[in-house]
Design brief:
The chain is built from four helices and four strands; from the N terminus they run αααββββα. It is an alpha+beta fold and 191 residues long.
């Protein structure tokens, strides 16, 4: 009888350890499928576009991690546009995932994207300056915050191709895009 109790105890301990690995540790290393990765990028871009359109930084809270490089950058950019009385109407016209990988606690999603932009006067909605169609190769760095994948940072993987030649404020277009983190290889590199 005693032997049976010991065997049952050992089996229970093994089962508890296996359950812990399955429910706690394994999801941390689970491969993210391309459809899920695409959905994460699309959701991030959809919400950030709405935040720019409305000049409402609070909207990003559901897709950007607290106290992250990306959160700080977006707060500054959206706030500066609001100070100028200009909102941004941005449309993602093309999205191609080129690589999805897990590196430690990060999910790295590499993309090629095309965007169409219009700056609009807050209140009237009148277009300010010229429209732009741009192409980017991006890196989205996601981390888990409270169990949910959220963007910690975005980077250009290559210099952006910008359609318009001027922006409707006192800053040239190259300086405006340098507010983004440098492409990998020109600063802190990510694989």
């Amino acid at each position: 009888m005693r032997r049976l109790i010991i065997v049952l105890f050992v089996l229970g301990a093994v089962a508890a350890a296996a359950a812990t690995i399955f429910f706690v540790v394994a999801p941390k290393f689970r491969k993210v499928e391309p459809d899920e990765a695409r959905s994460l990028v699309e959701q991030f871009n959809r919400i950030v576009c709405e935040a720019y359109r409305r000049c409402d930084i609070k909207l990003i809270d559901s897709v950007v991690g607290m106290n992250t490089t990306e959160g700080n950058r977006l707060t500054g950019l959206i706030g500066a546009r609001l100070d100028m009385g200009i909102s941004l109407d941005a449309q993602l016209t093309s999205l191609e995932l080129t690589k999805v990988e897990r590196v430690g606690d990060e999910l790295l999603i590499h993309t090629k994207e095309k965007w169409h932009y219009r700056d609009l006067k807050v209140g009237s909605g009148a277009q300010v300056g010229e429209e732009s169609t741009d192409s980017y190769e991006m890196l989205y760095i996601f981390r888990k915050f409270d169990g949910q994948w959220m963007v910690a940072e975005t980077k250009f993987n290559a210099p952006p191709e910008i359609g318009r030649k001027t922006v409707p404020w006192e800053m040239d277009r190259d300086k405006a895009h340098k507010m983004m983190t440098l492409p990998a290889g020109e600063g802190e590199a990510h694989p």
